[in-house]
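In the design runs reported in the main text, the only information available to the sequence generator was the tokenized backbone. The following block is the verbatim input for one such run; it is reproduced so that readers can re-run the procedure and compare outputs position by position.
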């Protein structure tokens, strides 16, 4: 299912190109390649550190419990038994994590990087990456378990229903793209409905896990997970925290290889050169992952054939909001809707206030629920030709502005002599 694509970073040969520039470009490419390898290995380290991270968490819980008076400890006689059970559940999760790590070589696609050397570099897993490992286990529940069926019906259901209305006669000649496909259940469902579907995902956390499920799993209910053992807050009972989930709920191998493909990498970088190659683009919880949501709209329009459809579902959380060294163009839905006409996308269906939960533990005391927009657009004409500035240019400009501001502040703060 997988196609590991990289951007062509080699420059065009010509009389005006100096060998010095070629050497500089090569150095930049090597640096970028090494940074990518370091990033990937950091994620592998986070997965490998899963059990240690959990035991550190549970040991702290045990230490805190034992620090209270004995008479109060006696009021909760089942606490230590619960902790022992939680530690045992880590073993089941660790088995799944090891299966994920066993497939890591698929993504080590550089001939010039010594990944073993990179792994040995002293870079401990960050708290953020460890949290993403725990989140990935919950994503498995959402996409590939019977327990996640209700959530999938909320967000994938409207998209699949709309696709079936728009394309009543499924065929693998009808090409559908699912950018930001996460754990890949939606793209699998579209392929399973009889279309050719291609998924695209950027996160290695998701890519590693979904590769195991899509390519290495030949029957349902192979793995047992305990995704909520790390969730010690907002629990009604220990039973909810110790919930066992079987993954996957279907046999992923039942569809032909020719009807499903995956493309790993950045959506904008991979698909920028494609023009009118897709009959449908389906996006779920995706457009708010952009630094510039208008650029996503432009690219989606460019990818669609005239007469093709864009089916969308999701909120506008804006993932880069407030992040340092990242731009984040944050528009309301009505502001986004006003941009559609410019890119020859005609809004033919709009539903608001569609509820959708995200990684919700039914036996817990808290849930995140979004009020989403569900839309369909048809492409009615050619996409206007635009040459947008590189995404990093805004960051460069921001850096220059900050530097100028610091220089001004330094100037105005000079003490009088």
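Verbatim output:
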């Amino acid at each position: 299912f997988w196609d590991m694509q990289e951007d062509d970073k080699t420059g065009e040969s010509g009389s005006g190109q100096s060998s010095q520039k070629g050497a500089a470009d090569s150095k930049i490419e090597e640096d970028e390649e090494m940074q990518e390898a370091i990033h990937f290995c950091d994620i592998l380290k986070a997965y490998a550190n899963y059990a240690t991270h959990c035991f550190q968490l549970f040991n702290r819980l045990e230490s805190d419990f034992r620090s209270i008076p004995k008479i109060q400890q006696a009021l909760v006689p089942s606490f230590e038994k619960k902790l022992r059970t939680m530690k045992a559940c880590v073993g089941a999760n660790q088995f799944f994590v090891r299966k994920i790590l066993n497939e890591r070589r698929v993504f080590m696609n550089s001939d010039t990087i010594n990944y073993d050397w990179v792994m040995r570099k002293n870079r401990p897993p960050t708290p953020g990456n460890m949290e993403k490992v725990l989140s990935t286990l919950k994503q498995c529940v959402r996409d590939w378990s019977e327990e996640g069926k209700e959530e999938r019906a909320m967000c994938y259901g409207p998209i699949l229903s709309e696709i079936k209305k728009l394309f009543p006669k499924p065929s693998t000649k009808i090409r559908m793209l699912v950018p930001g496909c996460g754990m890949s259940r939606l793209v699998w469902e579209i392929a399973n409905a009889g279309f050719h579907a291609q998924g695209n995902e950027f996160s290695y956390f998701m890519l590693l896990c979904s590769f195991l499920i899509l390519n290495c799993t030949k029957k349902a209910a192979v793995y047992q997970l305990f995704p909520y053992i790390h969730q010690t807050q907002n629990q009604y009972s220990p039973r909810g925290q110790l919930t066992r989930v079987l993954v996957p709920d279907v046999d992923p191998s039942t569809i032909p290889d020719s009807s499903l493909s995956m493309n790993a990498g950045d959506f904008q970088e991979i698909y920028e050169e494609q023009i009118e190659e897709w009959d449908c683009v389906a996006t779920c919880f995706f457009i708010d992952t952009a630094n510039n949501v208008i650029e996503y709209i432009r690219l989606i329009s460019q990818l669609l054939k005239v007469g093709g459809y864009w089916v969308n579902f999701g909120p506008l959380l804006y993932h880069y909001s407030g992040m340092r060294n990242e731009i984040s163009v944050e528009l309301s839905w009505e502001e986004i809707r006003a941009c559609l006409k410019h890119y020859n996308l005609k809004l033919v269906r709009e539903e608001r206030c569609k509820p959708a939960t995200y990684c919700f533990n039914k036996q817990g005391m808290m849930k995140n629920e979004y009020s989403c927009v569900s839309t369909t657009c048809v492409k009615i004409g050619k996409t206007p030709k635009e040459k947008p500035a590189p995404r990093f240019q805004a960051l460069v400009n921001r850096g220059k502005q900050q530097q100028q501001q610091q220089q001004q502040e330094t100037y105005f703060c000079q003490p009088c002599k």
